[in-house]
Amino acid sequence: MTTDVDIPVHAKDTAEEEAAAGAGRSERLSALAQQHGALVTLLVAMAVASLSFDTFLTGDNLENMALSSAFLAVVALGMTYVIITGGIDLSVGSLFALGGVLAAWASQYGFVAALLLPLFVCGLIGFVNGLLIARSRLAPFIVTLASMLGARGILLSITDEGSTTYLVGKGSFFAKLGQGSLLGVGVPVWITVVLFVLGAVVLRRTRFGQYVYAVGGNEDAAALMGAPVARTKISVYTLSGLCAGLAGALNAAWLASGVTILGSGMELDAISAVVIGGTLLTGGFGFISGSLVGVLLLKVIQNVINQIGSLDSAYQQVVSGAFLAVVVIAQTWLGRRRRVL
């Protein structure tokens, strides 16, 4: 004869509550790893570099790293919005170079022209990208690849196949925008900080930011909820073009010239920084602050390789590529874990 043993109801409830609590903790840990994993890695890398090289934490070295990071960071800011919507922008490297040349050429007509011309042209190209992607439903990869080639062609045409280099007048107000400093920190660094604060506020605290996440999470569901999907896509690609043009203008002011060979491969660096910072390539999840951390981490890797001296600069690409692969694998695993939980 068998006897059924009834489990008290309160015991069942307690077990279910403990299981739910455990799943909740695991999900929070996975989310924290995605959001702050790059920051922890950056701090560890800086600690190791400071112990290995006496010159790493010197004021000059940190200032140089911050200044060289500023231009890529501005490009990565616009790229973050694009990737959160589930898109990609391959044109930013060419727009960066084009913006620099346009700014240097226009600097002869004053500060306003030097700043507004690259913003207008690069923003317009970004707007066209967004229009083709949102309205014609073309693949972002193809559209922005065409823009990358087109912008580089415009650049070559206005510089006589790269043989003409436009210079920024020394001592001009526009040159001071790139070469000046405030409280011992370069002006481009301050501009980058302000832009990232504004970008984070817009993404997290405004309706437009909610639309960006919604479009990247599920475009069809976002449309059913009343989100302006097409307008959001057009806006983020326009923003990406504006950021690339502004970064190019700041770089021209810093170098006091429009260098035609810059920007090659910059789109890949920007994408790498954004993904390393925790933004998912599939869209719907990402952080502005994470992109800044990703940029800094790439610059620390580059600086460490330069500090070693015996390694070729190509090792930077090898290390960055390997690190990016690890990050993508980790993001995929954490994303699946969160869905299971």
How would you sum up this structure in a few lines?
The chain has helices at about 10-50, 60-85, 90-105, 110-135, 140-160, 175-180, 185-205, 205-215, 220-225, 230-255, 265-275, 290-310, 315-340; strands at about 180, 185. It contains 13 helices and 2 strands; from the N terminus they run H-H-H-H-H-H-E-E-H-H-H-H-H-H-H. The longest helix is centred in the first third of the chain and has 44 residues, at about 10-50.
Describe the protein:
This protein has 341 residues and is mainly alpha-helical. The chain is 76% helix and 1% strand. The protein is built from 13 helices and two strands; from the N terminus they run ααααααββααααααα. The protein has helices at 9-52, 59-84, 92-106, 111-135, 140-158, 173-179, 187-205, 207-217, 219-224, 229-255, 266-276, 288-308, 314-340, and strands at 181-182, 185-186. Strands 1-2 form a two-stranded antiparallel ribbon. Helix 3 (92-106) packs parallel to helix 5 and helix 3 crosses helix 10 (229-255). The chain is globular, with a radius of gyration of 23 Å. The protein starts with 8 loop residues before the first helix and ends with a helix.
Task: Map the helices and strands.
Elements: H1 9-52, H2 59-84, H3 92-106, H4 111-135, H5 140-158, H6 173-179, E1 181-182, E2 185-186, H7 187-205, H8 207-217, H9 219-224, H10 229-255, H11 266-276, H12 288-308, H13 314-340
Antiparallel strand pairs: 1-2
Helix pairs in contact: 1-12, 1-13, 2-7, 2-8, 2-10, 2-11, 2-12, 3-4, 3-5, 3-10, 4-5, 4-10, 6-10, 7-8, 8-10, 11-12, 12-13
